[in-house]
Write a structure and sequence with these properties.
The chain is α/β, with parallel strands linked by helices and 917 residues long. A hairpin with a 2-residue loop joins β20 and β21.
């Protein structure tokens, strides 16, 4: 068998004058066991469909109807599959929630910093296939994949007219090797498309251009079910597309034809009533919902939004809510298709024929929102929009909402809790003038993130507030790093059309890039002198950003407190320069005549915002911005693309190394054995995030990863971020648990990536060095944790890194959904304490030697789902969190990649023999 390179072998269909990318291989349609195949005629076209409208029971939530169609379309006629369908038809019964369903996406969505390691894994699988004497081309995506390059640009330059050009120049200089690798992937793999740098943020591009809502392919029509390697893939649910985040490892399996297994979810109905008061924004609404639903405990559940307030809610506001599903813990927050979805599709330039298909399909399949026929839900949570008030969230978690009128008091409480809260005031010199700097000084004000830059109303509100401030003679505080990083070029267009760009620039909000930037920690250096003053005086300074996450150490390593806020509030805090102010009663500043200027004086009304939008925003902006979204600029086109079915790894590369996960792969997995003689690598508390486990921001020079790169003669200016180095496992293993704000109870109060090495008498060492000592001694490692372990992003390196260190199991009070699945995908066993128990309640210190007993029975269907844990003299029972039969299979094979490669070779008639070197 020879590999045929079909990376560009795609057909393009002309619809309404626009080219739509369509894979040449049609969708897989299983046996019609339930007799649901039917036809749908729209205009002059007839589509085949798997009809669910009559089969679904009355009141079945819309999001579950999408899952039902997915099961029917991919059915194999086997009893197990029929049982999954019946579980959805019987949704709500205890038996239904005990059933796992196999979901297959219509497309997989990636970004560059987790797409590069995913692509590296696929390349390594091809290498492994070749090493076994097989055709590497059998490792090839079977569903379309779209990757958007949006995570690599850094806000190095800001507050200057050439900031965008300088940042893009640095982006290409730092990442040219990674970009060549992506170009290789485009040519080597089928159905793999890349949106080049500079187009915007993936989720904003998704709703504005890439999302189909209904996919039409080879005469079939079916829902656009989008699974992405970024947790905020959920944003597309605001457009009526069911989608959620999965780990990169799970995405690789989905790309290669595996289903994504999940228990049938509960569905919580979020009923919205009333309307937002003037002065309240969609950002305030989503922060309120995040607080509300995190308290309701929706982890692992779907949320479906309904109620009288939904009909009048723009898609942009819906997308803001759906975007932050990971922050309130839900798998997704789904808005069914309705007239507003159709309006948005038309306005953003989708072909009229496709909009007609979306409408006809949704109505035929019972996916159309009918307020008079409400769905039934596992529970209903109600919110009156009239009670939403201007708010922030912080300083460390998105669910910690603070009403604006209590922001100063909340900040002061947070400062008092800081370890260095006794630090005195400092001074910083900017442009020759000395300025005071103290606790609460705002040192970053960032208009950033798809959460808000995809919403024209809040962005125009920010720009109008900037105009009003400039007209009153106000300026941003000089110690504040101001930046504007946008999710779409459309925002630039309507700012320019409205004449608002000069006012933002007058306050220092020059365009810094089209990408995630500050929201993901790519905030770049602070204003010169500020970092030094913070370090010298132990200051607890603040960042205010229009993002979706504010975890410890995420935004900037020198900034202790991070607040999420609406775009106009970001501008307001840039003017104030401090959190130690009550913006509802005190002045933001003073005009040239010395008169006080308050927030109320410059806050634009909803009517003013709408007038600007009506006068400037038009559909042509979207069609022009996305005329050829996959083409790229001259820099991208100039990137040399390697060719070949396998990738030629360069031994001297510091960005790309062949992953080791398939080394030693045997034809069949070894029997699972108990874990004995293990030591605890870290003992952690509640709400440990994936940022704590695998940071994404700048690599500190003195860290294990920084020292490793320095040893390879990488200049300090070229060290870059952890996120950019995810294609190099040597860097990322050294970065595991290296967050400078990590609090490991074994480290005796010392923050950062430190622990005790019990092979050296309990000596305090870096986590990486201690793990290496345990590995050298043949000692397995465990992590002890509290509740909500793995909160945050979908990053698979939060599982890969610990696995490479030698962590065999994580024992926690509870797990966040994606991270738990990632652990399974890397062969790391997730274990939960029994209800009401924890490491502290059991008296565990982390200094004990541990045995995990009873794993051998995992091969049996009758395994009780618990194991015995022996910690020194104590013994207790823990739950095994392998939640589906497929997850158990992955674990037994030592992880997803090993299982998938064995399965591919088996399915292609080329079963593995021998061992991968």
């Amino acid at each position: 068998m020879t590999h045929k390179n079909r990376g560009h072998d795609r057909s393009r269909r002309e619809r309404g004058g626009e080219r739509w990318l369509v894979a040449t291989d049609g969708p897989v349609h299983g046996r019609d066991s339930f007799g649901t195949r039917s036809a749908l005629r729209v205009g002059g076209e007839t589509y085949r469909i798997h009809r669910v409208g009559d089969l679904a029971p009355p009141g079945l939530p819309h999001c579950l109807r999408v899952l039902l169609e997915n099961l029917l379309r991919h059915g194999d006629g086997r009893q197990g599959h029929a049982g999954q369908v019946r579980a959805l038809l019987d949704w709500g019964s205890p038996a239904s929630f005990a059933t796992a369903v196999d979901v297959r996406p219509s497309r997989v969505f990636l970004h560059d910093t987790n797409g590069v390691p995913a692509l590296a894994d696929l390349a390594a699988m091809r290498d492994a296939a070749a090493a076994l004497g097989r055709d590497p081309g059998v490792v090839n995506p079977s569903v379309p994949a779209e990757l958007v390059v949006d995570h690599s640009v850094i806000a190095d330059f800001h507050a200057r007219p050439d900031a965008l050009a300088r940042n893009v120049e640095l982006e290409y200089a730092r990442n040219s090797e990674r970009y060549r690798f992506l170009r290789w992937g485009q040519s080597a793999f089928d159905r793999f498309a890349v949106v080049p740098p500079g187009r915007g943020i993936m989720h904003q591009l998704n709703i504005e251009r890439l999302a189909r809502v209904v996919t039409a392919e080879d005469g079939w029509a079916f829902p656009d079910l989008c699974l992405g390697t970024d947790s905020h893939t959920t944003m597309v649910n605001g457009l009526g597309v069911l989608g959620w985040g999965i780990g990169g490892i799970e995405a690789e399996a989905a790309l290669l034809g595996q289903s994504v297994s999940m228990p049938v979810p509960e569905v919580v109905g979020l009923r919205l009533t009333g309307r937002l008061a003037d002065g309240a924004t969609a950002t305030d609404l989503v922060l309120t919902i995040t607080e509300l639903l995190r308290r309701h405990k929706v982890v692992g559940k779907f949320v479906e939004v309904h109620g009288p307030a939904v009909a009048g809610m723009p898609v942009a506001d819906r997308a803001t809510i759906a975007n932050m599903s990971p922050e309130f813990g839900a798998t997704c927050a789904y808005f069914p298709v309705d007239d507003e979805v159709l309006r948005y599709l038309r306005f953003t330039g989708r072909p009229e024929a496709h909009v007609a298909l979306v409408e006809a399909y949704a109505k035929e399949q019972g996916l159309w929102h009918e307020p008079a026929s409400p769905s039934r839900y596992s529970a209903t949570v109600e919110l009156d929009l009239g009670g939403v008030v201007p708010s922030l969230a912080g300083p460390r978690r998105p669910q910690d909402r603070v009403p604006l009128d209590r922001a100063r008091a909340s900040f002061r409480s947070a400062v008092a809790a800081l370890p260095e809260s006794g630090g005195g005031p400092a001074a910083v010199t900017v442009d020759g003038t000395e300025h005071p700097l103290g606790h609460g000084s705002v040192v970053i004000a960032a208009l950033t993130s798809c959460t808000n830059t995809a919403n024209p109303s809040v962005m125009v509100a920010a720009a109008l507030l900037a105009k009003n401030a400039v007209d009153r003679g106000l300026r941003s505080a000089p110690w504040v790093k101001t930046s504007l990083s946008l999710g779409s070029r459309v925002v630039t267009d309507y700012f320019d059309a409205a004449g608002l760009t000069p006012y933002l620039e007058e306050l220092g909000f020059h365009l810094t890039g089209y990408g995630c930037m500050t929201c993901i920690g790519a905030s770049g250096p602070l204003v010169p002198g500020v970092s030094e003053a913070i370090a010298a005086h132990g200051l607890g300074t603040a960042a205010v950003l229009s993002g979706n996450r504010n975890f410890d150490g995420r935004i900037n390593p020198d900034v202790r407190m991070n607040y999420l806020a609406s775009p106009p509030l970001v501008v307001a805090y840039a003017l104030a320069g401090t959190m130690d102010v009550d913006l509802t009663t005190e002045p933001l500043g003073y005009d040239p005549a010395g008169r006080p200027v308050t927030l109320a004086d410059i806050w634009p009304s909803s009517r003013e915002v709408q007038q600007v939008l009506d006068a400037t925003l038009d559909a042509g902006m979207y069609t022009r911005a996305y005329a050829d979204v996959f083409a790229g600029d001259r820099r991208w086109r100039a990137v040399a693309a390697p060719v070949g079915a396998t990738f030629a790894w360069q031994e001297e590369s510091t960005y790309l190394r062949r992953p080791p996960y398939l080394d030693g792969l045997a034809p069949a997995p070894a029997p699972v054995a108990d874990i004995t003689g293990a030591r605890v690598l870290l003992k952690l508390g509640d709400s440990v995030t994936t940022d704590h486990i695998s940071p994404a921001g700048a690599i500190p020079p003195g860290s294990p990863a920084g020292r490793y790169l320095a040893g390879l003669d990488v200049a300090r200016a070229d060290v870059n971020t952890y996120a950019s180095r995810r294609g190099n496992h040597e860097v990322m293993a050294r970065g595991a648990f290296a967050n400078i704000r990590l609090r490991n109870e074994l480290a005796g109060g010392r923050e950062g990536g430190w622990t005790r090495d019990f092979t050296a008498g309990g000596e305090l060492r870096t986590v990486y060095d201690a793990a290496q000592a345990y590995r050298a001694a043949g000692i397995p490692q465990l992590v002890l944790a509290g509740a909500e372990y793995g909160t945050g992003s979908s990053r698979d390196w939060a599982a890969k890194g610990p696995a490479l260190l030698g962590v065999r199991a994580v024992l926690a009070r509870s797990f966040e959904r994606i991270h738990r699945a990632n652990l399974v995908g890397m062969g790391v066993l997730p274990l939960e304490f029994a209800d009401g128990e924890s490491a502290d309640s059991l008296g565990l210190t982390g200094t004990e030697t541990y045995d995990v007993l009873g794993l051998a029975g995992l091969e049996d269907d009758g395994h009780p789902g618990t194991v015995t844990v022996r910690a020194g003299e104590r013994e207790f029972t823990a739950r095994v969190r392998l939640d589906t039969p497929r997850e158990r299979l992955y674990y037994l094979h030592g992880g997803i990649m090993r299982y998938v490669l064995r399965d591919i070779l088996e399915r292609t008639g080329e079963g593995a023999d021998g061992v991968v070197a």
